From TrEMBL:
<dbReference type="Pfam" id="PF24681">
    <property type="entry name" value="Kelch_KLHDC2_KLHL20_DRC7"/>
</dbReference>
<dbReference type="InterPro" id="IPR015915">
    <property type="entry name" value="Kelch-typ_b-propeller"/>
</dbReference>
<keyword id="KW-0677">Repeat</keyword>
<dbReference type="InterPro" id="IPR006652">
    <property type="entry name" value="Kelch_1"/>
</dbReference>
<keyword id="KW-0880">Kelch repeat</keyword>
<protein>
    <submittedName>
        <fullName>Kelch-like family member 7</fullName>
    </submittedName>
</protein>
Length: 349
């Protein structure tokens, strides 16, 4: 359908026809690339001089089974809506062109399918399986979803690195990572895929990692980076102003001894060095966070014992300062971000 759409000079099509007929057609709504082409044409025609979906702007969404919540960081309010997602534990998720992709995880067994959730139409599709595993990480670059690592049915960490092309709707196996890992984090910055931390082997005999590596899609090669100052897994990893922030997570003081972390550090891409930042006012075992401008919102997570995150935390990168808000936090989630629209996908038991 993309090839057919490319043959049409959309700029010559009346803007009302594009907005009222073409853009609302389900065939296009379920195809992110088609939707992007139509949207661009509408911008060119002046149809989109103002955002058409203001209710989603700057909202952070949390999904838990068939429950969905949007958080507005402007007034710290939550709004509940319905959604159609299946329950799973330890998934990963990304957002591209308003389509959320929830990958992997487990629910009695390792889930093979990928849920593609169209936010505008509240519709799910399952176009094909990646290698079934949980505790992997994912990020997006130029319309491709890159999934890294994770653990397979036996619980062992893997070095798999796959990509899903949203245009051709096909999976591809790429060059394996340098280190097998699960419960790690990944982000895209300046066209490169950064992978940091995690755990080798499994939850019983594994080792928490300081190790970091970066993948260049143009050369399809990995290279090592400087290690983090602190070994961590299940941590937050976000990009703000050309710096990659590693937030909280779980460390280790030895076999079977979990160590909740409140440390924060950032990797300066220009200098290739890690630096310490102000500590969180809470020790974590998992951290789920998203950046909004130059502020990092920690919206969910759990800690040792009963020390679960109760209130949303804000880290102001410009002033290196933490603020505890009055807004309620949510427990144990996987989060994604794209442009001004942020979404959290909750692990469900």
């Amino acid at each position: 359908i993309m090839d057919v759409l490319r043959c049409i000079r959309l700029s010559l099509v009346p803007k009302t026809f594009l907005s009222e007929t073409v853009k609302t057609e389900s065939l296009f709504q379920d195809n992110p690339h088609c939707l992007q082409m139509i949207t661009r044409a509408m911008w060119d025609l002046g149809e989109l001089s103002q955002p058409r979906h203001k209710k989603y702007d700057n909202c952070i969404g949390l999904f838990d089974g068939n429950r969905c919540y949007y958080f507005d960081p402007k007034d710290y309010s939550w709004m509940s809506i319905n959604c159609k997602l299946s329950k799973r534990q330890n998934p990963t998720a990304v957002l591209w062109n308003r389509v959320g992709s929830i990958l992997g995880g487990s629910h009695s067994f390792h889930i093979k399918h990928t849920d593609f959730y169209n936010i505008l139409r509240n519709r799910c599709s399952r176009p094909g399986p990646p290698t079934p595993r949980e505790k992997m990480s994912a990020c997006v670059f130029e319309g491709k979803i890159f999934t890294s690592g994770g653990s397979e049915a036996g619980g062992s960490a893997v070095d798999l690195f796959e990509s899903y092309d949203t245009m051709t709707e096909s999976w591809q196996v790429n060059t394996s990572m340098l280190v097998s890992r699960c419960s790690h984090a990944s982000v895209e910055a300046n066209g490169l895929i950064y992978v940091c931390g995690g755990m080798t082997r499994n939850s019983v005999s594994g080792r928490v990692l300081r190790n970091c590596e970066v993948y260049d899609p143009s050369t399809q090669q990995w290279r090592k980076l400087h290690e983090m100052r602190v070994a961590r897994k299940n941590h937050g990893l976000v990009v703000v102003d050309n710096k990659i922030y590693a937030v909280g997570g779980e460390g280790s003081t030895g076999l079977y001894n979990a160590c909740g972390l409140h440390s924060v550090e950032y990797y300066d891409i220009t200098t290739n060095k890690w630096h310490a930042a102000s500590r969180m006012p809470w020790r974590s075992l998992t951290v789920k966070c998203v950046p909004v401008g130059d502020v990092i919102f920690v919206l969910a997570g759990d800690g040792l014992g009963a020390q679960c995150l109760t209130n949303v935390l804000e880290y102001h990168t410009k002033t290196n300062r933490w603020v505890t808000s009055k807004a309620q936090a949510f427990f144990s989630t996987s989060c994604i971000i794209c442009s001004r629209i942020m979404f959290l996908f909750a692990s469900s038991s």
